[in-house]
Amino acid sequence: MLKLLGKPTSINVRKVLWTLAETGLAYEREDWGDGYRPTNVPEFLALNPNAMVPVLVDGDFVLWESNSICRYLCGKAGRHDLLPAEPQERASVEQWMDWQATDLNSSWRYAFMALVRNSPAFADPAQVAASAAAWNRNIGILDRHLAVGGPFATGANFTLADVVLGLSLNRWLMTPMERPDFRAVAAYVERLLERPGYREFGCNGVA
Predict the structure, then answer these.
(1) Half-sphere exposure of residue 67, counting CA atoms within 13 Å on the CB side?
(2) Global confidence as pTM
(3) I need a labelling partner for 89 at 20 to 30 A (CA). Which of 78, 111, 155, 172 fits?
(4) DSSP per position, the chain
């Protein structure tokens, strides 16, 4: 059976949990991370030298990086509806997954750590404002795309891109800051809420 290492409040662990819900693969989970078993111990570092969750263990195979884990799970389950086999369709899904992991995540980090985590290392008001503005600009990119290319990230069908974007949108909506009224994004979130996996692991009251 698959084993997932990571705490249930981690946004990246929840991304994998939603993917597991969509694929129907059987798994067990162990609590690792802040507030649970520490990840800087030799036992965990042997699995992921970055000391970060999630980690997936499938027999002798060990995988880290949440988006890579999600891709692997779709392949293991043969879910080409979530991650297409056709090169161009797959590239469209992975484009939005990579954008979420790079451009989008980079923009929200300072504002989120200041406004939600209340970290003293992220207390510069100017940098908080700049991060929030960049975050909103990126969500605006997604909003404009959905308005003409929706209803989902790559068009008519729900894919793995929507899993990773859905977690990020939940974080954006739960962070106490000013947000533009992005109507296409709002409608998109309502569509995601129709999926049990998003209600349980994405939009579940945890940022």
Answers:
(1) 18
(2) 0.96
(3) 172
(4) -EEEES-TT-HHHHHHHHHHHHHT--EEEE-BSTTSB-SSSHHHHTT-TT--S-EEEETTEEEESHHHHHHHHHHHTT-TTTS-SSHHHHHHHHHHHHHIIIIIHHHHHHHHHHHTS--TTS--HHHHHHHHHHHHHHHHHHHHHHHHH-SBTTBSS--HHHHHHHHHHHHHHHSSS-----HHHHHHHHHHTTSHHIIIIISSS--
